[in-house]
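Our consortium's second objective concerns turning raw sequence data into structural hypotheses that experimental partners can test. To show how far this objective has progressed, the report includes one record in full. It was chosen at random from the queue rather than selected for favorable results. The single chain below, 353 residues long, was entered without modification.
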Amino acid sequence: MKIINILKDYYFFGNSLLDYAIFILVFLASFFILKFIKVYIIAKLTKLAKKTTNDFDDVIIISIANIKSSFYLVVSLYIAFSYINLLDFLQKIVYLLFVLVLVFEVVRFLEGIINYFVKKKMKSIDGEQDRETRSVMKIITLFLRITIWSLALLMVLSNLGINITSLIASLGIGGIAVALALQNILSDLFSSFSILVDKPFMVGDYVQVGNDDGIVQKIGLKTTRIKTLLGEELVISNKELTTSRIQNFKKLQRRRVVNTWGVTYDTAKEKMEKITDIAKKIISSVDAVTFERCHFSAFSGSSLDFEVVYYVESSEYGAYMDAKHEINMQVLEAFRKEKIEFAFPSQTVYLQK
């Protein structure tokens, strides 16, 4: 008790020795408690991480483990300084240090999560798409980092007592002006992000956009380049691609073919009944082709129509045309042998005297 009373009697800079003793004890206790919490949390998360198959929890553990000692030091000082009287400017300095260190560690934590998803995406990139996709991913990462650091800066300024409302308003007006000036470029840029994430097509895919078709050669930040069947390079803006209807033939596992065979009205019933058997026999004999059905489907103006459906078990256009050619040639030969005539548009005119 005497020691405590003695400590109470001596004052330096508006605080007794007892206040300084409490300050030191609180600082040390806070520092070691925070360190203990860190070790305890890491140990618990490590046990949980061993039970999961994904590696995202490992990123959380690494991020917590990488928190610098300066963070615990500043937080402990901030807690301890609340037990002594400080001049106003010293209080502001301590508070500023606390805010800066806290914001810095939060930003580093968020950057670690961003890097995790970026690296995971990079691992899935292969082949010809590698260079274009990596460049887009770098831009996305840069954009996210700029956004995070901008928000962190605004938070620090706000805690310093600076009115950021007018600053945000002026930045908003400037941003609108820049966005209007770069409207087309930004549209293509965000469209390239959409293509990257949604993946309606990839490099090497055979696609059709409107009346144009070809093989995708390159997906850039502003445009996509397609090599047409004629050999020319077609350059299409990414904005146009994201607003257009795209047919991606690379996704085809097999092609469904629907044909209409029209025969003349004077074809006998017995011969018409043979058409289904002829179709099934011929189509089933062709390699990589699956027969589905053949039906007498309609009475047309100049013909009796049979609808024939089959599948070509290939996504290649050349294989599809080869199968179609072979089937058509065999059908033509079989119809001539059976003396079944194909119909063509014709009119019969009756003259009455």
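The partners drew two points from this record. The chain has three domains: 2-124, 127-249, 255-337. Strands lie at 11-12, 15-16, 206-209, 212-219, 223-228, 233-237, 246-248, 255-263, 289-299, 304-312. Both points have been shared with the crystallography group to help prioritize constructs.
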